[in-house]
Amino acid sequence: MRRGEFVTAAVLAVLSLYLMWKSSELEIGYVRGEGPGGGAWPFWLAAIMLICTAVITIKAVRRTSPPSRSTEPVLDAEGRRMLVQVFGGIVAFVALTSVISMYGAMMLFLFYYLWFLGRHRLPISLSISVLTPVLFFFFFEGLMRITLPKGMRFTEPFFNILYELIY
Question: What pLDDT does residue 3 have?
């Protein structure tokens, strides 16, 4: 388990540095009259992720986290099964983005994750799965003026209703 903590932190640190480097090709600060530059969100989120990997590494070195004191394997049979289920959900999410939009794919992924994997009650799973993409729509489209993939034409009526609420 301890080795897994170090390997995970190292992989995430390298990924963070790469994302910071690539996103700095765009403006990472505030562009007057436009809002955050195209690289701002990826850069600063990757910077936060890099800080988190440093904290994970420090805790692992000091053996203050439960995984750093554990002698158990990183993944048992149940862990591998869950990893495959989550990875399959993410692959489906990415594949559905171009078909039913980022928001539709997000809604289905959240429902799958909450109801099927998390075993939460149906009303909670449905409400979170529907409300979260709508809130993300207003945040990205309305406040940030960032357009996320809308999928195929059959999703347009739904977005037209939401656009009327924004404008």
Answer: 86
